[in-house]
């Protein structure tokens, strides 16, 4: 009780000395206002879980009678300190109730929630044009105050905190729903009309690694500002916006006319809908202009945020950063930005980081689904979707510059595409994730980004004359299965709502399967033909004339097949075999589970055999007694030489990365960055054949004898231990079969590794273009060991980081 009395007296004293309203109706800030505000904030920091201080402030209506008027009266630099404390209190008072009252166990929790919710609604209802203008003007004032003679914004920690509190306050306001049944765009429109976008762009343009908290808040605010608007929707109005046709409409409400009064609530439903629609159209134009400015001005500066490896890895897990990155990249064509301005955001290094993060997130997602961990699976599914969207936009931008800016190709763009073509893991990743897509669980939006991204990547490779078509065909062959075509058709089901590129990404694959792979029968499936019939029945479908011709051809082919072959929905080939996919044992009995295949492709469901006498236990026991060389021979005799070669190549690549030798070859992203982070390297089974091979008892026994971490309930992939040295990886690779020493990426002598040697700084990765005058994401690693933190500059090659790192490790 004494605690409450002390708080109550302090609050009453402090709030009564904040200021007053003079005869003209203007709020006058008192001389002791700043000290009183500090006292109120101290009380807020000391209150307990029942939030007595907030309740007192809510009952006295301090926010609407004093705090907001103080905000509106801070119109000069002399009130900068007062503004800073005031906005800090307002940010604290508008924290969501579910966070503030999370630890409250009081029987009156419902009453406390009601009181605080009413205060939140009063603050948002009172926060109108004058308040919005004052907030944005003060933010602009702080930025101007911190500008140097070169117009660089140098924020002090105190000013960073104040701006961060301003943005957090706006985020809290957006979370307050006065009327949850209707969407209110008033706050969005007024903030942008009073040039909040210019303030945010100025901050993004000058962002520095030390502004981490401030940057996160800006990115969160962007997410909320653009909520409800898609990139294609905004792109439609960008031409008129760029011509300066954004209308300066009169404010919908003034300070004296609030939108939630009784008169406003009496408006008929039709008039209210028209007002909301008009407000939304105005917001659409304002956001379109903001999006173009973000792409043109702010996006190139985000490279500063990715100035070191730790920042890259952190932001690749930040949902708001990923959303902003992908969304802003959508407006490159409209903003007419040059490739040189955003080349750092399209580097193959950054693509590699995205691919690696996708693989780790995908593994976590699959394990969480198996364990039915909904929370973890939801988080990782969002990260997967956003990473897929970012890669899609990066490939789309590279494709745009390849087509529209041929003069830029010799300036490094072609090198970037060549590096991507060498990173086979990129195309393999799309194969794996589309192949393992679960129609019943996974998001269709995620599938859309995967399919469009895969299409853009293949199109990008087709424009690169140095990239052989045989590699593209090899990738397409792995998509030529009945199951993959069903997944593509699953996306095509929503053809009515898709854009042209989204529908064409599906039809491009259908065309490749029909013409390049020459297996049109894969498309003669009932679900696919049903989708074709729906497209026939619709007008103005977003597909090209070539896709329409392809539908006509396939439907005609189906008609001919019906006359010639009643088994049209099966494979027309005559070669039919059975493949044993697993065996079950019970006592001294066993039964086989097989599937029928034609020409190596699955055509039927599983067939479970009868229980029979078995010697499987003896077989497994005999496998366990085999030596490593005997197991390798056994696997080779069972047709698994290609799978053994893949494991061998992975071990040699790890060896190459860990060696201190010249680095002039492109490595796979997951392998490289796993070594950099001192993580075990995953042996990823991209194809179904490889996935089935590593599950066989012989392969499992081989892995155990070699010392790798085989799959279990805690890991989805087989792992090469992180503590293995280059010598261990090399020796293990030799156990898996003969090596072609002439094709190794490093030199050997008498079939043994040479003593490692350092190379000069002139040796660089043939990745993106490198020039000393420009900052680049291809960084230089300081001389640190693998297990230490990475401190990077943005001047040298990613591969030189590895060389110096290994040199330091050897010296240690």
What features would you describe in this structure?
- By secondary structure, the chain is α+β, with helices and mostly antiparallel strands.
- It is 59% helix and 6% strand.
- It contains 38 helices and twelve strands.
- The strands form five sheets. Strands 3, 4, 5 and 6 form a four-stranded antiparallel beta sheet that branches.
- Helix 1 packs across helix 3 (52-59), helix 3 (52-59) packs across helix 7 and helix 16 packs across helix 18.
- The longest helix has 33 residues, at 269-301.
- The two termini are 63 Å apart.
- Residues 1-7, 245-272, 570-576, 598-618 and 757-807 have low confidence and may be disordered.
How is this structure best summarized?
With 812 residues, the chain is an alpha+beta fold. A hairpin with a 2-residue loop joins strand 4 (589-598) and strand 5 (601-608).
List its salient traits.
two-stranded antiparallel sheet; 812 residues; 4-stranded antiparallel beta sheet; 38 helices; alpha+beta; disordered N terminus
Helix-strand blueprint:
Layout: H1 2-15, E1 19-21, E2 27-29, H2 33-46, H3 52-59, H4 62-73, H5 80-93, H6 97-100, H7 109-126, H8 129-145, H9 157-175, H10 186-193, H11 196-205, H12 212-225, H13 231-235, H14 238-242, H15 262-265, H16 269-301, H17 309-315, H18 319-329, H19 332-335, H20 339-342, H21 348-370, H22 374-404, H23 413-422, H24 424-435, H25 444-463, H26 469-477, H27 482-492, H28 500-516, H29 526-536, H30 545-564, E3 576-586, E4 589-598, E5 601-608, E6 612-613, H31 616-625, H32 628-637, H33 641-658, H34 669-676, E7 681-683, H35 688-694, H36 697-706, E8 718-720, H37 726-735, E9 748-749, E10 752-753, E11 780-781, E12 792-793, H38 798-811
Antiparallel strand pairs: 1-2, 3-4, 4-5, 4-6, 7-8, 9-10, 11-12
Helix pairs in contact: 1-2, 1-3, 2-5, 3-7, 4-5, 4-8, 5-9, 8-11, 9-12, 10-16, 11-16, 12-18, 16-18, 18-22, 21-22, 21-24, 21-34, 22-25, 24-25, 25-28, 27-28, 32-36, 33-37
